[in-house]
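haha ok so turns out i had the wrong file open the whole time. this is the CORRECT one, sorry everyone. sequence first:
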Amino acid sequence: MGDPKKHRKKYTTPAHPWRKERLDYENELKGIYGLKTKQEIYKMDSFLRRIKSQIKKLSSAHGNQAAKEKEQLVSRLKKLKLLGEDATTDAILGLNIENLMDRRFQSVVFKKGLATSMTQARQFIVHEHVLVGDKKITSPSYLITEAEEKTVEFDENSTLSKQDHPERIAASKDIKKEIEKSKLKKEPVDEDLDVPELVQPEEAVVIPLEDAEDIKVAVKDDEETKSSETVVSDDKLKSEDAKESPKEKLKEEATQSSGAASNDKPETEEK
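then structure:
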Protein backbone atom coordinates (compact mmCIF):
# COMPACT_ATOMS: atom_id res chain seq x y z
CA MET A 1 0.00 0.00 0.00
CA GLY A 2 2.71 2.46 0.85
CA ASP A 3 2.66 5.42 3.17
CA PRO A 4 -0.31 7.71 2.94
CA LYS A 5 0.35 11.10 1.44
CA LYS A 6 0.68 13.93 3.92
CA HIS A 7 -1.96 16.59 3.34
CA ARG A 8 -0.68 20.13 3.33
CA LYS A 9 -2.40 23.46 2.99
CA LYS A 10 -2.69 24.76 -0.54
CA TYR A 11 -3.03 28.34 0.59
CA THR A 12 -1.67 30.86 3.09
CA THR A 13 -3.77 33.16 5.23
CA PRO A 14 -3.13 36.93 5.49
CA ALA A 15 -0.40 38.07 7.85
CA HIS A 16 -2.69 40.56 9.59
CA PRO A 17 -6.20 39.14 10.16
CA TRP A 18 -8.07 42.32 11.17
CA ARG A 19 -7.57 44.96 8.48
CA LYS A 20 -10.93 46.56 7.69
CA GLU A 21 -10.22 47.39 4.04
CA ARG A 22 -9.14 43.82 3.24
CA LEU A 23 -12.10 42.31 5.13
CA ASP A 24 -14.58 44.51 3.26
CA TYR A 25 -12.98 43.57 -0.07
CA GLU A 26 -13.07 39.85 0.75
CA ASN A 27 -16.73 40.04 1.84
CA GLU A 28 -17.62 41.68 -1.44
CA LEU A 29 -15.78 39.01 -3.44
CA LYS A 30 -17.50 36.33 -1.39
CA GLY A 31 -20.96 37.74 -2.15
CA ILE A 32 -20.39 38.43 -5.85
CA TYR A 33 -18.81 35.08 -6.75
CA GLY A 34 -21.07 32.98 -4.49
CA LEU A 35 -18.30 31.60 -2.28
CA LYS A 36 -18.95 29.56 0.85
CA THR A 37 -15.79 30.41 2.79
CA LYS A 38 -12.87 32.78 2.46
CA GLN A 39 -10.54 29.81 1.99
CA GLU A 40 -11.54 29.85 -1.68
CA ILE A 41 -10.27 33.43 -1.94
CA TYR A 42 -7.04 32.50 -0.18
CA LYS A 43 -6.46 29.58 -2.58
CA MET A 44 -6.79 31.83 -5.63
CA ASP A 45 -4.61 34.48 -4.02
CA SER A 46 -1.89 31.92 -3.16
CA PHE A 47 -2.00 30.53 -6.71
CA LEU A 48 -1.58 34.04 -8.10
CA ARG A 49 1.34 34.82 -5.80
CA ARG A 50 3.10 31.58 -6.77
CA ILE A 51 2.80 32.47 -10.45
CA LYS A 52 4.17 35.98 -9.92
CA SER A 53 7.10 34.81 -7.77
CA GLN A 54 7.90 32.11 -10.36
CA ILE A 55 7.97 34.55 -13.27
CA LYS A 56 10.21 36.92 -11.28
CA LYS A 57 12.74 34.16 -10.66
CA LEU A 58 12.66 32.98 -14.26
CA SER A 59 13.06 36.48 -15.69
CA SER A 60 16.24 37.01 -13.68
CA ALA A 61 17.64 33.54 -14.51
CA HIS A 62 19.60 32.66 -17.65
CA GLY A 63 19.95 29.48 -19.68
CA ASN A 64 17.85 27.14 -21.76
CA GLN A 65 16.02 25.64 -18.79
CA ALA A 66 14.82 29.05 -17.55
CA ALA A 67 13.61 30.01 -21.03
CA LYS A 68 11.80 26.67 -21.38
CA GLU A 69 10.04 27.01 -18.00
CA LYS A 70 9.06 30.60 -18.79
CA GLU A 71 7.53 29.53 -22.10
CA GLN A 72 5.61 26.71 -20.40
CA LEU A 73 4.23 29.09 -17.76
CA VAL A 74 3.06 31.63 -20.35
CA SER A 75 1.41 28.93 -22.50
CA ARG A 76 -0.37 27.54 -19.43
CA LEU A 77 -1.82 30.95 -18.58
CA LYS A 78 -2.87 31.48 -22.21
CA LYS A 79 -4.76 28.18 -22.12
CA LEU A 80 -6.57 29.39 -19.00
CA LYS A 81 -7.47 32.56 -20.94
CA LEU A 82 -5.67 34.70 -18.37
CA LEU A 83 -3.33 36.12 -21.02
CA GLY A 84 -3.88 37.15 -24.61
CA GLU A 85 -2.06 35.68 -27.57
CA ASP A 86 0.35 38.61 -27.87
CA ALA A 87 0.90 39.01 -24.10
CA THR A 88 4.40 39.09 -22.67
CA THR A 89 5.81 37.97 -19.33
CA ASP A 90 5.28 41.47 -17.90
CA ALA A 91 1.51 41.01 -18.28
CA ILE A 92 1.62 38.23 -15.68
CA LEU A 93 2.53 40.74 -12.98
CA GLY A 94 -0.60 42.74 -13.86
CA LEU A 95 -3.01 39.89 -13.10
CA ASN A 96 -5.32 40.23 -10.11
CA ILE A 97 -7.56 37.89 -8.13
CA GLU A 98 -10.69 38.87 -10.09
CA ASN A 99 -9.13 37.51 -13.31
CA LEU A 100 -8.76 34.13 -11.62
CA MET A 101 -12.27 34.25 -10.13
CA ASP A 102 -13.74 34.75 -13.61
CA ARG A 103 -12.09 31.52 -14.81
CA ARG A 104 -13.56 29.34 -12.06
CA PHE A 105 -16.03 26.62 -13.09
CA GLN A 106 -18.79 28.29 -11.08
CA SER A 107 -18.32 31.66 -12.83
CA VAL A 108 -18.22 30.11 -16.30
CA VAL A 109 -21.48 28.21 -15.72
CA PHE A 110 -23.19 31.41 -14.62
CA LYS A 111 -21.86 33.57 -17.46
CA LYS A 112 -22.84 30.99 -20.06
CA GLY A 113 -26.47 31.38 -18.91
CA LEU A 114 -26.86 27.89 -17.44
CA ALA A 115 -27.86 29.33 -14.03
CA THR A 116 -29.70 32.41 -12.78
CA SER A 117 -27.15 33.23 -10.06
CA MET A 118 -23.73 32.27 -8.77
CA THR A 119 -25.21 30.27 -5.90
CA GLN A 120 -27.41 28.31 -8.27
CA ALA A 121 -24.42 27.60 -10.51
CA ARG A 122 -22.60 26.20 -7.49
CA GLN A 123 -25.57 23.98 -6.67
CA PHE A 124 -25.74 22.61 -10.23
CA ILE A 125 -22.02 21.77 -10.17
CA VAL A 126 -22.09 20.05 -6.78
CA HIS A 127 -25.20 18.03 -7.74
CA GLU A 128 -23.49 16.86 -10.97
CA HIS A 129 -25.90 18.52 -13.38
CA VAL A 130 -23.11 20.11 -15.46
CA LEU A 131 -20.39 18.40 -17.48
CA VAL A 132 -17.04 19.58 -18.83
CA GLY A 133 -16.80 17.54 -21.99
CA ASP A 134 -17.36 13.97 -20.78
CA LYS A 135 -16.15 14.63 -17.24
CA LYS A 136 -18.23 15.28 -14.14
CA ILE A 137 -16.42 17.88 -12.07
CA THR A 138 -17.93 18.70 -8.69
CA SER A 139 -15.41 21.37 -7.65
CA PRO A 140 -16.72 24.93 -8.23
CA SER A 141 -13.16 26.34 -7.97
CA TYR A 142 -11.84 24.27 -10.90
CA LEU A 143 -10.10 26.58 -13.42
CA ILE A 144 -11.59 26.18 -16.89
CA THR A 145 -9.36 26.37 -19.96
CA GLU A 146 -10.43 28.09 -23.17
CA ALA A 147 -10.92 24.75 -24.91
CA GLU A 148 -12.99 23.32 -22.04
CA GLU A 149 -15.23 26.38 -21.88
CA LYS A 150 -16.86 25.42 -25.16
CA THR A 151 -17.78 21.97 -23.83
CA VAL A 152 -19.49 23.11 -20.62
CA GLU A 153 -23.12 21.95 -20.80
CA PHE A 154 -25.83 20.12 -18.88
CA ASP A 155 -25.70 16.36 -18.50
CA GLU A 156 -28.08 14.54 -20.85
CA ASN A 157 -29.42 12.44 -17.99
CA SER A 158 -30.25 15.53 -15.94
CA THR A 159 -33.74 17.05 -15.97
CA LEU A 160 -32.12 20.46 -16.49
CA SER A 161 -31.00 19.44 -19.97
CA LYS A 162 -34.52 20.09 -21.26
CA GLN A 163 -35.10 23.57 -22.68
CA ASP A 164 -38.61 23.85 -21.19
CA HIS A 165 -37.38 23.30 -17.62
CA PRO A 166 -38.59 26.17 -15.35
CA GLU A 167 -35.05 26.96 -14.20
CA ARG A 168 -33.81 27.22 -17.79
CA ILE A 169 -36.62 29.64 -18.69
CA ALA A 170 -35.90 31.80 -15.63
CA ALA A 171 -32.20 31.76 -16.44
CA SER A 172 -32.76 33.11 -19.96
CA LYS A 173 -34.74 36.06 -18.52
CA ASP A 174 -32.65 37.07 -15.54
CA ILE A 175 -29.09 36.34 -16.68
CA LYS A 176 -28.34 39.87 -17.94
CA LYS A 177 -29.52 41.55 -14.73
CA GLU A 178 -27.50 39.15 -12.56
CA ILE A 179 -24.32 39.72 -14.60
CA GLU A 180 -24.61 43.47 -14.07
CA LYS A 181 -25.09 42.94 -10.33
CA SER A 182 -22.08 40.61 -10.17
CA LYS A 183 -19.68 43.33 -11.27
CA LEU A 184 -17.43 44.65 -8.55
CA LYS A 185 -18.54 48.04 -7.26
CA LYS A 186 -15.32 48.68 -5.39
CA GLU A 187 -11.88 49.30 -6.71
CA PRO A 188 -8.80 47.50 -5.34
CA VAL A 189 -8.30 47.62 -1.59
CA ASP A 190 -5.81 50.51 -1.49
CA GLU A 191 -8.24 52.82 -3.31
CA ASP A 192 -11.36 51.53 -1.58
CA LEU A 193 -12.04 54.55 0.62
CA ASP A 194 -15.30 56.50 0.68
CA VAL A 195 -14.22 60.14 0.55
CA PRO A 196 -17.09 62.58 1.19
CA GLU A 197 -17.63 65.22 -1.43
CA LEU A 198 -16.60 68.69 -0.39
CA VAL A 199 -19.26 71.39 -0.58
CA GLN A 200 -18.08 74.19 -2.82
CA PRO A 201 -18.45 77.70 -1.37
CA GLU A 202 -20.92 80.02 -2.98
CA GLU A 203 -19.53 82.68 -5.27
CA ALA A 204 -19.29 86.18 -3.81
CA VAL A 205 -21.63 88.76 -5.31
CA VAL A 206 -19.81 91.88 -6.53
CA ILE A 207 -21.86 95.12 -6.24
CA PRO A 208 -20.85 98.27 -8.17
CA LEU A 209 -19.99 101.42 -6.18
CA GLU A 210 -23.00 103.39 -7.46
CA ASP A 211 -25.42 100.67 -6.40
CA ALA A 212 -23.68 100.38 -3.03
CA GLU A 213 -24.29 104.10 -2.28
CA ASP A 214 -27.97 103.71 -3.20
CA ILE A 215 -28.24 100.74 -0.90
CA LYS A 216 -26.71 102.69 1.99
CA VAL A 217 -29.22 105.55 1.51
CA ALA A 218 -32.12 103.08 1.42
CA VAL A 219 -30.91 101.43 4.63
CA LYS A 220 -30.72 104.79 6.42
CA ASP A 221 -34.28 105.71 5.32
CA ASP A 222 -35.54 102.35 6.63
CA GLU A 223 -33.86 102.93 10.00
CA GLU A 224 -35.38 106.44 10.30
CA THR A 225 -38.89 105.19 9.50
CA LYS A 226 -38.56 102.39 12.05
CA SER A 227 -37.39 104.85 14.76
CA SER A 228 -40.30 107.22 14.03
CA GLU A 229 -42.76 104.33 14.23
CA THR A 230 -41.40 103.31 17.64
CA VAL A 231 -41.73 106.90 18.96
CA VAL A 232 -45.33 107.12 17.77
CA SER A 233 -46.19 103.79 19.38
CA ASP A 234 -44.69 104.95 22.72
CA ASP A 235 -46.78 108.17 22.62
CA LYS A 236 -49.94 106.16 22.00
CA LEU A 237 -49.25 103.92 24.96
CA LYS A 238 -48.69 106.90 27.25
CA SER A 239 -51.94 108.57 26.13
CA GLU A 240 -53.87 105.34 26.73
CA ASP A 241 -52.40 105.06 30.22
CA ALA A 242 -53.41 108.64 30.95
CA LYS A 243 -57.00 107.96 29.83
CA GLU A 244 -57.32 104.87 31.97
CA SER A 245 -55.79 106.40 35.14
CA PRO A 246 -58.96 108.30 36.45
CA LYS A 247 -61.03 105.16 36.24
CA GLU A 248 -58.47 103.21 38.17
CA LYS A 249 -58.41 105.93 40.90
CA LEU A 250 -62.20 105.71 41.33
CA LYS A 251 -61.99 101.92 41.66
CA GLU A 252 -59.33 102.19 44.37
CA GLU A 253 -61.38 104.74 46.35
CA ALA A 254 -64.48 102.50 46.20
CA THR A 255 -62.53 99.50 47.49
CA GLN A 256 -61.07 101.54 50.35
CA SER A 257 -64.52 102.89 51.43
CA SER A 258 -66.03 99.41 51.41
CA GLY A 259 -63.20 98.10 53.57
CA ALA A 260 -63.67 100.83 56.16
CA ALA A 261 -67.41 100.18 56.42
CA SER A 262 -66.84 96.52 57.08
CA ASN A 263 -64.45 97.36 59.94
CA ASP A 264 -66.98 99.71 61.70
CA LYS A 265 -69.87 97.17 61.92
CA PRO A 266 -68.48 94.86 64.63
CA GLU A 267 -67.72 97.79 67.00
CA THR A 268 -71.41 99.00 66.97
CA GLU A 269 -72.66 95.52 67.74
CA GLU A 270 -70.45 95.15 70.81
CA LYS A 271 -71.77 98.47 72.27
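The beta strands are 130-132, 152-154.
again sry for the mixup
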